[in-house]
Amino acid sequence: MKTPIAKVRTECPTANKFSSIVKVHPYRNKCGLSRRDFATKGIVAAGASVIPSTLPSQSAQGLERLPFKNDGYNFWTWRGHKIHYVEEGEGFPIVLIHGFGASAFHWRYNIPELAKKYKVYAVDLLGFGWSEKALVDYDALVWRDQVADFLKEIVKEPTILVGNSLGGFTALVAAEAMKEQVVGIVLLNSAGQFGSPNDEENEAQESPFQKFLLKPLKEIFQRVVLGFLFWQAKQPARVESVLKSVYKNTSNVDDYLIQSITRPADDPNAGEVYYRLMTRFMSNQRKYTLDSVLSKLSCPLLLVWGDLDPWVGPAKALRIKEFYPNTSIVNLQAGHCPHDEVPELVNKALVDWLATLPSTSTSTSITPQIL
């Protein structure tokens, strides 16, 4: 069935039934990830990833894989915190932002391929991956500021932001803060919700009883429950089960990926970071909505969507397209992390779309506003 609003299609025939491209089919209408999804189903190891030995580059679908390094690649100090990032290739810069609980290494099959034509950065958000487990109040603005400063201090030129899940919404809010430097955005099954008229009303109706009695009791209960969930989330069998529930083609759910999530750094702050993420960030999602951010943007947007995602279905991509017309959509038969499940198709979609943007040409000179 042809959809009237998905105007862009990328043809890439393949014998793998899981990695063929399909048209949008709005059989799901969930538009965001709930706190429960993140806490009980998500990739929720809040620590960084440390594997006992360095793993060599291997291939998936014939692609080169980024070599795993126990000590990471590059580090940058941001507001006194240690931030990890990968940098490869030469040319127009692309910045990759991972999803909740993951790290720069989740782009393992994308970085080497994209680096053949572009300068690729993949950054670990504060609290994740090899970046510091800082005890701060986590919300969308923390990562927005981190990515914005990364663009100003490390990238220093016009760029494309690419984000999966939580990284997708982070890309949007960072682009809104850096309009002169971000010339395009790519979202892969992005987090974020559209606003509801009831949100502000519910916030205003909070009583003193709720604020001063129920909230403290709720916090005690949350610490007990989330402490158990944090322990459970780090178990390899649990992580493997969750990954296989959101990867429709599970061939890339390997020991490399599982260990990169379950072997957190020996950091005493990891549990507290997890608690703050679950309670403060997730409960404040409604303060930063997709419509409020998209209404302030004008750059081209590409949606590369895994239509078989059990958390964020294709209906959300359609709604983004309806709200923000300067959008192209490529639909894939994949789950929540299409860049790792079907990397060859995601890489092709990115390269094809980038080739259509005048701003990515080396002959085009754009001077970013670096403050």
TrEMBL record:
- What GO MF terms are annotated? hydrolase activity
Highest rank taxon of the organism: Eukaryota
Classification via Pfam families: Abhydrolase_6
Q: AB hydrolase-1 domain: which residues?
A: 94-348
* Classification via SUPFAM superfamilies: alpha/beta-Hydrolases (SSF53474)
Example of a GO cellular component annotation carried by this entry: chloroplast
Question: What InterPro entries does this protein's entry cite?
Answer: AB_hydrolase_1, AB_hydrolase_fold
Identify this protein by name.
AB hydrolase-1 domain-containing protein
What organism, scientifically named, is this protein from? Answer: Lactuca saligna
Query: Could you read off the lineage of the organism from its UniProt record?
Result: Eukaryota, Viridiplantae, Streptophyta, Embryophyta, Tracheophyta
